[in-house]
Amino acid sequence: MTQSQAAEPDEAQGQPEDRGLAGFRLVAWGLLCTLTWLIVLVVTGGLVRLIDDADKAISELGLIVFVIGQGTAGLLGWLILPKLIMRRRRQSGLISWRRPTRSDFGWALGGLLAIYAVLYVYTAIVSAAGLESLEPQSTIDDDRLFVHTSVMVALGILVIVCAPIYEEAFARGFVLGGLRPHWGLIPAFVVSAAVFSALHADLGSLIPFAIAGVILGVVYIRTESLTAASIAHFGFNVIGFSATLVQQLG
After folding, report:
1. What whole-number distance in Å separates Cα of residue 135 and Cα of residue 132?
2. 243, 119 in Cβ contact below 8 A?
3. pLDDT tens, 78-117?
4. Separation CA 189–CA 196 (nearest Å)
5. Cα–Cα–Cα angle for 109, 114, 120, nearest 5°?
6. What is the number of other CB atoms lying within 10 angstroms of the CB of residue 121?
7. Ordered DSSP codes for 167-200
8. Mean pLDDT, residues 211-228 taken together
9. Considering the entire predicted model, what is its pTM?
């Protein structure tokens, strides 16, 4: 089954559904997924506070629970729930991976290079304009996460392995792939890029990560699979995490 076949709305069982309304319903499902993500984070934060209060300090166990909670929130809210929703809508092919092909690696490399080119140009522009506050910041710059080896390992798994999976599943498969047949290609790209940018919760990352979301969206659409986009995302996170690790331990 191709992506275009998988993306067809389930209209065969009855009256065709208004495409605009169907798109808004998908957005509502997306908000529910994000709410689930937020609830898990709040529960995790409560557990971490209890652990740290018992130890009278920020403990290794509390940090591990924090990292695991972050990963659980993402996997539940941005991977498992979206896949279940798409399966219910008979569009499960939108959130799928395959064995990487040579073409996938080519698109992944091209996407990765394009993202770094965008980051380089954007950073150069804001730096030349004296707007250092708008430069992209790492989302894992908390030096407490690099004190304990166990926490660093858990954080590495979260950033390098988990994030490229659930962020691509949600931003590309669920949002871009799900909205495309209802709202058209351009609106779906805009919404998915905005979602991807918002996931990183950093003012300086809003513009470059929105463009990065468009680049990864092109990779996803052209390859008709999340594989190449996830590989590019994986490569980006490996480089970013490694640079942060060297900076923190250097």
Report:
1. 5
2. no
3. 999 999 999 999 999 999 999 999 999 999 999 999 999 9
4. 10
5. 130
6. 12
7. HHIIIIIIIIIHHHHHH-HHHHHHHHHHHHHHTT
8. 96
9. 0.90
